[in-house]
Amino acid sequence: MEQIDLLMQGFAGALTPMNLLWVLVGCLLGTAVGVLPGLGSSMAVALLLPMTFALDPTAAFILFAGVYFGGLFGDSTMAILLNTPGQASAIASTFEGHRMANDGRAPQALATAAIGAFVGGMVASALVVFLAPTLVALSSAFGPPEFFALALFAFVATSSVVSDNVLKGLAALIVGIGITVIGVDGVSGLPRYTMGLPQVFDGVSLVTVTVAILALGEVLFIASRVRRDTEDLEIRGAKGRPFLSRAEFVDAAPAWARGTAIGLPFGVIPAGGAEVPTFLAYEAERRIDRRRRNPMFGKGAIRGLAAPEAAGNATTGMAMGALLALGLPVSATAAIMLAAFRQYGLQPGPLLFENSADLVWALLASFFLAMVVLLVINMPFARLWAKLLLIPKPHLYGGIALFCGLGIWATSGAVFDLVLLLAIGVVGFLMRRYDYPVAPLMIGMVLGPLAETSLRDALLSSVGDPRVLVSSPIAIVIYTLLAAVIALSVRTAVRSRTRRDV
């Protein structure tokens, strides 16, 4: 098949010594950041974004992909060992994974998580290889009305799903879109919301916003919560066999399969990332466990850990496919990677596969390599990763703040951008402090220009007739799905309020 030939060419590019080095470095960095509570792949990619411009695009995106997948592995390690998930996508793994650790089965729990993530990631990567041409063909049928509908779907779906409070999600989205309209309008040539400052006539840099919101904002939030008492962190049960017995493997295998099946569709649905499918996978296993003669949930059920881990990496793998073929970021980290493509003058979508086929297929091949590398470095070295928590917080977060400033200075060399970094970092701190989701802001920041340009082009082509926005079957399908998402969100909100009233 043509896809197999292209993938083999991709492996030829990815297996060069330098690219293999970047796979390893990305996996190590992603895992190292993931095991630090409060950090994650989105922050790691944000910090690396201004520092990778010296690399060629293929090496840079192989590095980013390794960080993306490695962050999920690291998040799960801390969720299991210390009941401290690095990101929301690892929360579901704490329920049964930490109970396994408390029972002295931490190595088995870590092995379950590593194998589950490997299975989910490999299946998703294989599907991306075979479905990418189909997604590219589908994306070639998109025009301005369809792209506007897709952006609108991403806006509303992300805002309503990733936050318990829909209004907070919409507020974060509006902030992100509002930042994108600052600068000189490309059509009229008039400045918009610049407050007379010539430094923002070209707009606010996406790199500055990304680093400020995800990295500096997190540093300020952690600094505001530092406690005076310092407790030693105990790493429980980190000794023993880092593999599963035959009985444990047989018990976990169906959960890995079900979790993978649940996670795959969410890779192309703008639902904020892997948080939703991991909880759905956990809930599905819990319902199945209730029917067993000897229910294990609440006692360290291996299936309750296997399913969320497989679902999370399956979603991440498919999200990369959606990003490459459709240019659709379904999570904050994917949005940052889309920004990275644009920094290199590349636009994900059908033209990317035509104009940069070497980059795309080398990147797809690196997904498989990253899965293998992560399995190798995580199963035997989990205890070593946990020791990173012993780094004093002032040193750790002080270093992150320093890298934030150095990265922005390296990209612009302007004091104004450093001031802007601090100001937006304060906004990121306030969002964390008052529980406003970050993903809608990033999605709004990245897709805002696409939505505005598509809306203008569609209306110009129809001489101002708004019916053009619903003139194609694809647009109608997208709006139907959007209505279903809104209805589901309203139903969930009404149910939760009814339960509180009762």
TrEMBL record:
Q: Where are the transmembrane segments?
A: 20-39, 59-82, 109-135, 147-163, 170-191, 203-223, 322-341, 361-386, 398-431, 468-490
Keywords recorded for this protein, A-Z:
Membrane, Transmembrane, Transmembrane helix
- The protein's name: Tripartite tricarboxylate transporter permease
Q: Does the keyword Transmembrane helix apply?
A: yes
- Which species does this protein come from? Brachybacterium saurashtrense
Q: Where is the signal peptide?
A: none
**Occurrences of domain DUF112 (ranges):** 20-443
